[in-house]
Prior knowledge:
Oligomer: single chain
Amino acid sequence: DVPGFRPSRSTKPPPVFVGGAGPRSVAVAVEVADGLQGHLMWSAPYLRETVNPLLGGLPSTFPVTWARLAAPSAVPGWELDAAQRLAHYAVTPSYQSVLAAAGLQIDRDRVVHLLRSNDHDRLVDEVGGLIDAFCISDAASLRAALAEAESCGVSGVIMFVPAGPGIGERTTQYEAALIDLIAER
């Protein structure tokens, strides 16, 4: 044994969070996890009507978070990047009921066609409601997302920036702009 490198038996293992969107993943988290990582497509109505009743009598110390796409408008091309990321989630059949709870629906076939044909302007128009509902683009939308989360009993908001092939430099810009947004709140 090398001094200083012994594992400590007194430390607890890290908490386990279960992530998911639907009622089954919430039930699994309630049954076996230390917390629940909510989905990007969760809305306040979905949390209130579907998730919170499933959490039932859990103590308030059971952390529940939700995710939001952070595409700060200070980065050129942010609307298209947000639209592409959100559209990929929104066309998933199992998320349709989650979107419906938010009062949103999309024409899945049309959105898939727009994604495949790289019809950027129409894609942004087609999923603009998703951007408004699930994307943080400025300090005001960050404050609104945090207030909405708090009103639903959410203990944390996980923000992630658009990333993917072809936007590496913008991803770095998003990260820098996100720091500025958080500082402004």
